[in-house]
Amino acid sequence: MRIGELAQRTGTTPKAVRLYEARGLMGAVARAGSYRDYGEADVARVLLIRRAQALGFRLAQLGSLPALDSATGWDAVGALIADRRAAVAAERARLKTLDNELAQLESELLHCDAQALPASAAACAAEPVSPPSRRTARPAPTTPPRGFVARV
């Protein structure tokens, strides 16, 4: 098949396929005269490259791997994936800690609100209690306060 058909079947562009080839990700591509001749293995390889990119891998990372035709290549891919999974696990742990801290802050704020305390932070940080059921939640402001900078 020609490059246009390969691009169409994999949801990419001929330019991207040429880039993958230039980076050495496609291996040796057969030629029929002056045209590249791609097969089903090339379709699978482009789909694999696109999936890896969607999961956050950069072409430079993929291009530094040995050829996937060898056991060394697959071992290197496995190591790259293991590293990425470790990074994801660390990020999940960080987000879990952040969520726990936010829940604690929310509990403290509800405690202060339940007691109508404009008092010191120490008074509000006392043992949290659930808010009284007679009160309704305040609607969230539609615009952030002046000078507010969101940090993500």
Describe what this molecule looks like in 3D.
This protein is mainly alpha-helical. The protein has 2 domains: 1-64, Multidrug-efflux Transporter Regulator, Chain: A, Domain 2, CATH 1.10.1660.10; 65-130, no CATH class. 56% of the residues lie in helices and 4% in strands. The chain has 6 helices and 2 strands, in the order H-H-E-E-H-H-H-H. The chain has helices at 3-10, 14-22, 40-54, 59-63, 71-114, 121-124, and strands at residues 30-32, 35-37. It has a two-stranded antiparallel sheet with strand order 1-2. Strand 1 (30-32) and strand 2 form a beta hairpin. It is elongated. The chain starts with a helix and ends in a 28-residue tail after the last helix. 8% of the residues are buried. The model has no long low-confidence stretch (mean pLDDT 79).
Short description:
It contains 6 helices and 2 strands; from the N terminus they run H-H-E-E-H-H-H-H. With 152 residues, the protein is mainly alpha-helical. The model has no long low-confidence stretch (mean pLDDT 79).
